[in-house]
Structures are given as C-alpha cells and as structure tokens.
Write a structure and sequence with these properties.
The chain has 396 residues and is α/β, with parallel strands linked by helices. It is 53% helix and 13% strand. It contains 20 helices and nine strands.
Amino acid sequence: MKANIQNLFGEKIFSLIHTSNLTYTTCWEDPRIDRKALNLSEDDTVLTITSGGCNSLDYLLDSPKHIYSVDLNPHQGALLQLKLAGIRELDFGSFFELFGKGRLPGFKRIYWEKLRRWLTPDAQNFWDRKGEKLFDKNKSFYFRGTSGSSLLLINFYIDRVAKIRLSINKLFNAQTLEEQQEIYETTIRHTLAPFMRRLLSSNLALWMNCVPPQQRQQVEQDFNCDIGKVYERWIEVLITQVPIKDNYFLRLSFTGEYSETCCPEYLKQKNFVRLKDLISRVSVVSDTVDGFLQKNNCNVSRFVLLDHMDWLSTYRHEDLISEWQNIVCRASNEARVIFRSMLSKVDYLDDLTICVDGQPQQLSSKITMRQDLAKQLNTNDRAGIYGSFYIADIKR
C-alpha cells in the first residue's frame, strides 16, 4: 500500500514537471546509429518522437519523403519549430551561436524580426514569454529545461568544487583511448564519477530527466544495484571505451556547448544549405504517437519510439497495446520500428495481443526482431544512457 501511494505521488510530480516545462533542450539518442538502422530513402515516411528536435533534423539529411515529429509536450514542438525557423532565416554563424553555443547576442531582436512569424500561435506564446531568458547570454541554453539543470550542476561541480576543468579540456583533446583511460583513472574516477552517481541517484534529478519512479525500480531490479551506479558504469564505458573526438553528447554534458567539429550533423556548416531546401518535409505535431496515428490516415514506413514504452508498460499498458495496434495498422510495406530501453532486455512486448483482421493475434507474430544488427550498432553508441536498442521489422 505504501509503495503504491509513493508511486502514485511520484507519477503526479513527474506529470506536473513534464507537462508544464521544456524538458529536453537536446536529444539523447545517437542519430548515427538510428540512421544506419533506419536506412532511409526518398520513399520513406518517418514518425518520430520530437524530444529536442535534433534527430528529426539529422534524419532529414537522408531526404525522406516526410517526417512527422510528434511529442505530447508542446514545448518540445515549439523548440523544433524555432530550429526550423532558424534554418530558414539565419546565416550559419548565427544559427550555430543559437543552437551550437546555446547563446545568441540580440536574440530578442532577431526573434521578433526574423523567427517569430514562422511559428504557430502556441509556439509564439512560449517563445514570447521564455525566449529571452532561455537564451540569456550569461548561461547556455543547454543548462535550461528540466534536464539541463543536471548539466548545470555537473559543470558547477567541475569548475567550482573539484576544479578539474583543465583535465576535462585535456580529455576532449585526447587522441587515443589510452589517453582517455588515463584521464579517467587519475582524475574523473575519484571526483566527477562519484558525484554524478550521487546526483543521478536522486529522485528529483531523475524526475527532472524524465525518469519516473517505476522506471527507476525497473532499472534497479534489472541491474541489481542503485540506478546511480548504473549511470556511473555507463559513463565509465563512454569515457574509456568510446573515442571522444566526435562524442558531442559528452562534450555538451561537460561543457554546456558544442564545437563546430563535435556536434550533431544538423549543426555542421556543410549540411546547412541542404537543410534549408528540405525543411518543408517536416511537420511538427503536439500529440502522442498513438493519438497521431488514430487521427491521421497516413502510411508510415519508419517509426522512432525512443524509450517511452518503458513508461507505458508500467503506467499505461492499455495505451501500449493501442499504440502497437495502430503502428501495425498504419505501417507500410517493409516498415521498421526502432526503440530503446533503460533495461538490458525488455519483455513487455512478448505477450502483447493486438487485433488483426478482426482476430486477436500476438504482436510477436507480426514483427521480426533484428537482434544482431541492433547489438552491432549499439556497441558504437555515443550517448550511452540506455541499456538496450531494438530494431523490429513489421510483417505484412
């Protein structure tokens, strides 16, 4: 009884935080892996969860027919709309200052003169109220949003408590894994790593990073340790086993900004002009995946579901069934679904039953899991905050 009350209270706080705030200022899924898994062509229609909007723009570089970028939180859609407006109206230098450095001098004037007219009324209302503060020249945009508060604390610890900024700079200049491993062992293992473990063991920090209490419980049962320790292990792997030269996830986490050589593809100058020609292929929608599929009669060939099924499987199991019912219904020939989980292995799809031609049928009979490909791609993941990655082909 006590556990149920705590879970209900936690869910209420979680919902309150993430329906009234911008949660993600960036995406925390590696689009390089996604693009290899999706294998997009000009015939593909993509449905993806928006999050920070970065990956929708990275997928766009593969020139799919259309991308529907969907998120229940309208503030995430407002962020992607601002990025699309920036691509349309700004030169590369200003665009990179805005979304590469997270600061743009004169943002208020530029917003009102160039960007605002491309936004929906709801997005205008959000940026009218929040824009000048979120792009304050004294603090990176990436320290904003609920998830950005953790990055702000990490960087405060680096600069003011442990005073290891020189070691962090040296880390990002490392040329070999051996150099990265040495810096981790001599500095990070005994300072930053335990701090991040303590920080990410906090329920408040987890709520702010969109990890509800039940998902925490799932992870701790799966890995048989505190979730902070799980994160600590993942961070160690990222720093010691993955080349850091182009790991823009770590760079953003430990500096609050990207560099022109270490950033998402949509922020690279070589892709900027091309994106200007492609942005009409993106539609930004405020809805759930299931809600969008129910309301729109379109065939989709590629689905990007992030890790939200971890949450649905616990809190909204009927919604999970409905979502897969509509995914199978709206899937075109040779459709593919990719998703992630914080767990090392998921079982919540194993016994899922959907309706096919009026008859109940196990979802497992309608999908083929590409386990070998998913495992191979996931070994090169630069974000490193998930326990597993999945690729599922839908049978027609």
